[in-house]
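Support request, please re-run this one:
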Amino acid sequence: MKYQGIDTTVPPTGAGCGECEQQHGWWLHLRRCAQCGHIGCCDNSPGQHATAHAEATGHPWIRSYEPEEHWFYDYREQQFYDDGPQLAPPDHHPLDQPTPGPAGRVPANWQELLH
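Re-run finished. Output below.
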């Protein structure tokens, strides 16, 4: 695995998807841009903001921002990797943040709204 496009010194931009937070939306799982630290929601989430960020910026790598998950994904190769370099902490969203999240904004029919 080549690490071009990964910056191990950049911390995550927050505890949740920045775009969903601005729009008072919700997410299923979170992804972290391994280049700039942007936190976006996964492709199953209504907003699909992690992929939108990668497409808009050309940043090629994401890492899961879920507890106990350490995989990376390379958009260029459309390939998952079980491991990679250690990124600046924290490694995941706060443990008290539910999945889906955030608390109080997830609709009762959330499963019907997934991609």
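The chain has a mean pLDDT of 96. Residues 49-57 form the longest helix (9 residues).
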